[in-house]
Structures are given as C-alpha cells and as structure tokens.
Amino acid sequence: IRRAAEVLGAWRLTGCTLAVTLEPCTMCAGAIVQSRLDRVVYGARDEKAGAAGSLWDVIRDRRLNHRPEVVSGVLEEECARPLIRFFRETDFRPGPSVG
Questions:
Q1: How far is it, in rounded angstroms, from Cα 33 to Cα 86?
Q2: Of the candidates 4, 26, 29, 67, which lies 20 to 30 Å from 56 by C-alpha distance?
Q3: How far apart are CA 5 and CA 2, in angstroms?
Q4: What are 23-66's pLDDT values in tens digits?
Q5: Tally: H helices and E strands in the chain
Q6: Taking the CA atoms of the chain, what radius of gyration do you get in angstroms?
Q7: Short-list 6, 57, 61, 62, CA closest to 35
Q8: Stated pTM of the model
Q9: What's the CATH superfamily of 2-85?
C-alpha cells in the first residue's frame, strides 16, 4: 500500500485493487480502508487473525466511511499450500539466549 501510494503520488488508492495470498489482518485491513482501495482480492482465509470476514470484518464494517469490495477464496488451495508448509516445517521454539 505504501509503495503504491509513492508510485501514484497520492495516499488515496481509488481505482486500485490489492491482491494477496492470505486474508488481511486487522492492521492491514485498517490500512486498506484508510487508503480507499476499491477492492481486495485474497486466496486463503485466516481463521485466527483474518479481518476481512473470517474472525472480524473490519473492511466491510458499516460504521466506517469506506468499504472496499472483498473477493475471497481466489486460488485458495494454491495460496494456502505454501503457508501450511511453512508452519509445518518451521521450529518456533525459542533458541539459546544471546547475551
């Protein structure tokens, strides 16, 4: 979003579509609304942190002054596959302390 605003020379991204693999989180959803994007297209739902319909629906909240169109589930399996693989293969246990 920041880069698009830099390239276009304006913070309002009307007429633009954001396409992402994973459903936007709350912070990203807020940036989407504030930047006035017309549309958000995403593949995989995020049941733990999604803010475009899964857990919350910040993007289409009627109390906000801008509500972009949301298109979900586009190439969902293809988008989810690398995310699932990453979380299966990544060891999230804390490593040794550096001191």
A1: 29
A2: 4
A3: 5
A4: 999 999 999 999 999 999 999 999 999 999 999 999 999 999 99
A5: 3, 3
A6: 16
A7: 6
A8: 0.83
A9: Cytidine Deaminase, domain 2 (3.40.140.10)
